Amino acid sequence: TSVSPHARPIVRVRPLTCTETRRGDRRVVHSLGDSAVHVSTAKHDATFSFSTVFDAGASQEAVFEGSGMRQLVELAIDGFSCTVFAFGQTGSGKTYTLMGPLAQSETQPASPALLGLMQRSFACLLEQSRSRGSDLALSASYLEIYNEQIRDLLSPGPPCALPLRWSKTRGFYAENQLSVDFQSLEAIVSLLLQGSQRRRTSAHALNRHSSRSHALLTIHIRSQAGHQSITLPMRVLQPSACPSKQGTLCFVDLAGSERVKETGSSGELSVEANSINRSLLALGHCISLLAKPRGKWTHIPYRDSKLTRLLARSLGGSGITLMVACISPSSHCLSETLSTLHYASRARRVTTRP
């Protein structure tokens, strides 16, 4: 399988919201075809190029098919470690891109046309498993990082903090994290919705349902070891086990970058925002260093936050990474939009060894 050694950032521009339109915000971000965005104001005039850009009219299906997500699923089945993460300002459409409408539940499912990258990837994974005739063992784990504490979103009872460990074989991992087996689309979607409803969210000036934690849902894919007989002239050897393959498909919904004064946050919300911003800053710092030519690397500070520790293998190791940069076209969000675009531009230069 041909695998790109670079992290692949794509950009999605959401439509102006009703609030932004009523407020009289101008549209300052315009897509230039399928591979560039132009930011134009009195003080800024810049064009950013990416492999793929989705404008405000792009459907959820178009984003799934055009992002390379289908290939990522196939690579995970083939034993690679694959990660997709969405980042951008709070309220820029990250959770919608990954999951679809926030209001959906098991009793009130979303319209099929509005389903996000996660549900479409689950369906693709199960479809590929059936078409290949392979015997795959599938399981899922789901955690959030809230105020630098790792909490299991699938374990019953109140969320409790999990310790973060490191080993030579696994890298950084959350100890005692629950992993749940599944075999059907209904089962994995149920796990996704159950876990998502336990995530920490709050309302503030920028977003009525702002995610206050980073969430990581990981699908573990293990192909069962098969057996084959090896025939040589004049003799037949005993059946030998084919090596089993273990791949992962990890979805990371990052909490939104934000300026505390813009959100009107105070007290606990302010503490949450500062914790979010510190971990995103640590992630940006790692990406900046990884984007330098390999000979100029000194030390990548993955240990600066729980988030960068858990993403270490995805960013600079043996993983394959798809980064979805979500931005608002509003003049009111210009500063954060430029920050997200610069962030994504740096990520293009990150190379891995999948």
UniProtKB/TrEMBL annotation:
Keywords: ATP-binding, Cytoplasm, Cytoskeleton, Microtubule, Motor protein, Nucleotide-binding. GO terms for molecular function: ATP binding; microtubule binding; microtubule motor activity. This is Kinesin-like protein. The keyword Cytoplasm applies. It is found in: Cytoplasm, Cytoskeleton. Residues 6-350 form the Kinesin motor domain. It holds the Pfam family Kinesin. The keyword Cytoplasm applies. SUPFAM superfamilies: P-loop containing nucleoside triphosphate hydrolases (SSF52540). The lineage of its organism: Eukaryota, Metazoa, Chordata, Craniata, Vertebrata. Belongs to the TRAFAC class myosin-kinesin ATPase superfamily. Kinesin family. ATP binds at residues 88-95. Its main location: cytoplasm. One of its GO terms (cellular component) is microtubule. One of its GO terms (biological process) is mitotic spindle organization. It comes from the Eukaryota.
